[in-house]
Amino acid sequence: MSAALRADVVVVGGGAAGLAAAVALARSRRDVLVVDAGQPRNAPADAAHNVLGREGTPPLELLARGRAEARSYGARVVDGLVTGAGGTVDDFALEVDGGALHVRARRVVLATGLVDELPELPGVREAWGRSVLHCPFCHGWEVRGKRIAVLARDAGALHQVLLFRRLSDDVTLFLHEAPEPDEEQWEQLAALGVRVVTPRVERLVVEGAQVRAVRLEGGRTFPVDAVVVAPRFVARTALYEALGGEATPTPAGARIEADERGATAVPGVRVAGNAAEPTAMVAAAAASGVLVGAAVHGELAAADLARAVRERRAPFSAAAEARVSALVLGDRRHGL
Ligand SMILES: Cc1cc2nc3c(=O)[nH]c(=O)nc-3n(C[C@H](O)[C@H](O)[C@H](O)COP(=O)(O)OP(=O)(O)OC[C@H]3O[C@@H](n4cnc5c(N)ncnc54)[C@H](O)[C@@H]3O)c2cc1C
């Protein structure tokens, strides 16, 4: 049997962005419902770093706190996957878990994050977020001074080399599928003291979630402690498209185009966090959620005001209408 819920605002996704939006909305006494599939991007990592005041907190613990904070102000948070969306501003209809739950709402906040599309190489997925990394700010400190391999996808790998080289003297660039560096880049790599390995990589050698080595095609093996990869950042855009929007391709994937307060091209639909800005870390995703929550509340407050004014005028207009009809009828009765 399916259930139905109604809310002022439905927030799809309960990561840092969605929960921050929910807190901002609920603290303004908006009726807000968060539907969350419970798979934040950073779930594989031991800890979230660069989160001021909560440095090093495990990602799921951080979100459990966020859920409790949102609920403490009256937000409802339900576990589930939003599988369908439709409707228009003031009357959106969302379907959860294939129809187990139906939700109606005046506004929609999409905080559905993104998918990290990893290089298809044995060993990468097993160690992802633990010793296969992408972000120097998230995990760089933890691998400082260690043997770091950068697995290139394209010329962007040079930027990763530069940032990780600050953290360790032992950085090796594996060109794998990337084009050869040009003359200037070779000089830069030499100046940084970075080794460059040109043959294609066959696999990462891992033990559990710990990478031990990079093995090249042909069998040559380089012992390492961490591997840096460059995933494609592909925002989850299916619901946005179902609501009439269009995904925006980026050089590294896709995103949902929005202004700084999350307004999209679809009226009544805002977007927060990584779905709009793939480079936003936890604190930035939460900040965008707060801004979006505040903007949605402002929009609803303006709509509520317009309705209140209409309703205030309505009794007078109704009476005036009645007087006019009476006059017309009276005139007709008098044959005029
Ligand atoms: C391995 C790794 C480690 C990281 N470490 C750090 C770090 O140390 N510090 C840092 O600041 N940043 C870190 N980040 C970045 C961080 O993960 C993001 O900044 C953050 O998760 C973005 O928050 P978000 O709310 O936009 O998306 P997410 O956290 O990904 O949350 C999106 C939520 O929406 C849910 N969802 C998606 N689709 C639906 C749907 N249709 N219906 C219902 N729910 C849905 C998902 O299940 C998920 O729970 C790391 C990223 C990775 C990949």
- Just give the CATH class of the largest domain: Alpha Beta
Task: Kindly provide the radius of gyration, computed on alpha-carbon positions and rounded to a whole number of angstroms.
Answer: 27 Å
Strand proportion: 25-35%
Indicate how many domains the architecture comprises. Answer: 2
Find the count of extended strands (DSSP E, 2+ residues). 19
Q: How would you characterize this protein structure?
A:
With 336 residues, the protein is of the alpha/beta class. The chain folds into two domains: 3-115 and 232-309, FAD/NAD(P)-binding domain; 119-228, FAD/NAD(P)-binding domain (3-Layer(bba) Sandwich). Helices cover 33% and strands 27% of the residues. The chain contains eight helices and 19 strands. The chain has helices at residues 16-27, 59-72, 124-127, 136-139, 157-165, 183-192, 238-242, 282-333; strands spanning 3-12, 32-36, 76-79, 82-88, 91-96, 101-110, 114-117, 132-133, 148-151, 171-174, 195-197, 201-207, 210-216, 221-223, 226-228, 232-235, 248-250, 253-255, 269-271. The strands form four sheets. Strands 1, 2, 3, 4, 5, 6 and 19 form a seven-stranded mixed beta sheet that branches. The longest helix is centred in the C-terminal third of the chain and has 52 residues, at 282-333. The termini are far apart.
SSE diagram, text form:
Layout: E1 3-12, H1 16-27, E2 32-36, H2 59-72, E3 76-79, E4 82-88, E5 91-96, E6 101-110, E7 114-117, H3 124-127, E8 132-133, H4 136-139, E9 148-151, H5 157-165, E10 171-174, H6 183-192, E11 195-197, E12 201-207, E13 210-216, E14 221-223, E15 226-228, E16 232-235, H7 238-242, E17 248-250, E18 253-255, E19 269-271, H8 282-333
Parallel strand pairs: 1-2, 1-6, 2-3, 6-19, 8-15, 9-10, 9-15, 10-11, 16-18
Antiparallel strand pairs: 4-5, 5-6, 7-16, 12-13, 13-14, 17-18
